[in-house]
Amino acid sequence: MAKKIVILGGGVIGLATAWACLKDGHDVTVIDRRKRQRDGCSFGNAGMLVPSHFIPLAAPGMIRLGLKWMWSRESPFAIRPRLSLDLISWLWKFRQASTQRQVDLNAPLLRDLNLAGRKAFLELEQEIPDGFELTQRGLVMLCASHEGLEEEVEVAELANELGVPATVMNPKELTELDPGIRMGVLGGVHFPLDCHLSPNRLMNSLEEYLEQQGVKFCWETTCDHFRAANTGTTAAGTLDRVNAVTTNQGDITGDEFVICGGAWSNLLAGQLGIKLPLQAGKGYSLTLDQPRQLPEVCSILKEARVAVTPMGRTLRFGGTMEIVGHDESISPSRVRGIVRSIPDYFPDFEESDFLGCKPWVGLRPCSPDGLPYLGRNSRHENVLIATGHGMMGISLSMITGKLIADAIEGRASGIEGLARLSPARYA
Ligand SMILES: Cc1cc2nc3c(=O)[nH]c(=O)nc-3n(C[C@H](O)[C@H](O)[C@H](O)COP(=O)(O)OP(=O)(O)OC[C@H]3O[C@@H](n4cnc5c(N)ncnc54)[C@H](O)[C@@H]3O)c2cc1C
After folding, report:
1. Is it the case that residue 130 has pLDDT exceeding 80?
2. How confident is the model at residue 378 (pLDDT cuts 50, 70, 90)?
3. Is the pLDDT of residue 71 over 80?
4. Quick one: which of 41, 46, 3 has its CA closest to 24?
5. Is the pLDDT of residue 351 over 80?
6. Is the pLDDT of residue 67 over 80?
7. Is the sign of the CA dihedral 247, 251, 252, 257 positive or negative?
8. Full DSSP string of 106-168
9. CA distances for 3 relative to 8, 195, 280, angstroms
10. Per-residue pLDDT for 186 more than 80?
11. Atom number of ligand 1 nearest to Cα 318
12. Is CB count within 10 Å lower at the N or C end of the chain?
């Protein structure tokens, strides 16, 4: 039966959810507080689809790395210490999740989600051909140090064991793979199933397509709180039903409400009394309109943790994960950290290439265990949550939409371990 689905948030996760719900014949409304001509995390990112990313951010060694880099102003990972109970609790959960046991448990799930996400993008591409420059040439992890290369060789072995193809390459093989750019690296690993796309084009094409298909968009509409009524009790406690979301443009009613508010989703969920441990992970990107050289394959500069993606004739460099709260200011030293690292991998590039290049900033929604929150919440019979994708929000967007649509329909999804994505896992 067709339902009225109200999606809170018009980033990539909100649009992907609208896409999947529309296919089930629902009446879909997307609400966002920004203008139609908006920016945000879903636009200026590196646009990579990453079956190679089966190791979550919360992994052994990350706490040590975070502490080591804490005092460096140019480091790619940083946590700004502040007196916040939410931050302290998030860090504690991050530490608990950063064990080898958790990584081993979650790697097959992240692999399955990313592979299903890739497949869903191929399906979307059939519907909007040439809509977002999907390029299936794989991704290379480029290593400038022996230590970095050793680590990546181990990841490649694990990837192959998990059924994600990965090939270790020497500098000559890397040049043969991508003659478009001169590399000064010791070696790397090619993950042929990874892809890249242009996120700006994805967002614009998908939005236009959804609108043509009948999705209603409410721009400059801020969700403030919810109107809910008690409908009973369960073993977990009381059960409520949301009738409407109250916004600056009036109440919007619906049958199902999906929270896709990105790094602000915890504030939205908090209005319903749902505790969703979430921190904003700030990142930057710089896009060269006329790069000296243009690779054909996207890459990650391993030690610098910089993602490099060709988008049309332009070249985008993205990086940094700063846990700094909802602060969208630009730190020149972090941006400098990205720029300075590039000639170590691509020696023909110079820092001066980036003079006048305006840095872009985005806040990733980060859960402490590096897994998204996905599904129904246990306290409300008609509220679903889709957020916490961290560094993989583009890659996992379309499969997220499909899984939310499955949850609304009560359909089995065929992916094992989805219970571990429950938004109630920290309740
Ligand atoms: C530098 C960088 C590089 C990245 N590279 C990649 C990559 O290569 N591959 C990949 O998969 N991912 C990548 N990511 C991550 C990816 O961009 C994010 O995970 C993804 O964009 C998050 O999408 P979202 O829809 O959850 O959030 P957002 O895009 O932030 O959308 C959330 C929306 O909710 C709205 N909203 C919030 N609160 C309210 C409210 N109260 N009322 C109304 N509206 C509200 C906001 O206005 C916003 O438009 C990268 C991120 C960064 C920063």
Report:
1. no
2. confident
3. no
4. 3
5. yes
6. no
7. positive
8. HHHHHHHHHHHHHHHHHHHHHHSTTSS--B-S-EEEEESSHHHHHHHHHHHHHHHHTT---EE
9. 16, 34, 32
10. yes
11. 1
12. N
Q: What is the DSSP letter of 225?
A: E
Angle between helices 100-127 and 397-409 (to 10 degrees): 90
DSSP one-letter string for 176-188:
HH-TTS----SEE
- How does residue 78 score in pLDDT terms, banded at 50, 70 and 90? confident
**pLDDT surpasses 80 at 234:** no
- Once rounded to an integer, what is the mean pLDDT over residues 66-92? 86
Q: Which domains does the chain have, with CATH numbers?
A: 4-45+202-274+369-421 (3.50.50.60), 50-195+279-366 (3.30.9.10)
Ligand 1 pocket residues where CB is under 6 Å: 8-14, 31-34, 40-42, 45-48, 222-223, 260-264, 268, 283-285, 307, 318, 362, 364-365, 387, 389, 391-395
Q: Which atom of ligand 1 approaches the CA of 396 most closely?
A: 11
18 contacts 28 by C-beta, under 8 angstroms: yes
Distance 87 CA to ligand 1 centre (A): 20
Mean residue pLDDT of the chain comes to 95
Q: Which atom of ligand 1 is nearest to the CA of 360?
A: 1
Closest ligand 1 atom to Cα of 320: 1
The answer to whether 364 touches 393, Cβ cutoff 8 Å, is yes
State the DSSP code for 249: T
CA 412 – ligand 1 centroid, Å: 27
For ligand 1, what atom is nearest to the CA of residue 389? 19
Mean pLDDT, rounded, for 311-331: 95
- Check: CB of residue 272 under 8 Å from CB of residue 427: no
Residue with CA at minimum distance from ligand 1 atom 35: 9
CA of 354 to the centre of ligand 1 (A): 25
The answer to whether 149 and 186 have CB atoms below 8 angstroms apart is: yes
Distance (Å) from CA 394 to ligand 1 centroid? 8
For 294-310, what is the mean pLDDT? 97
**Separation CA 134–CA 311 (nearest Å):** 10
Q: Does residue 235 surpass a pLDDT of 80?
A: no
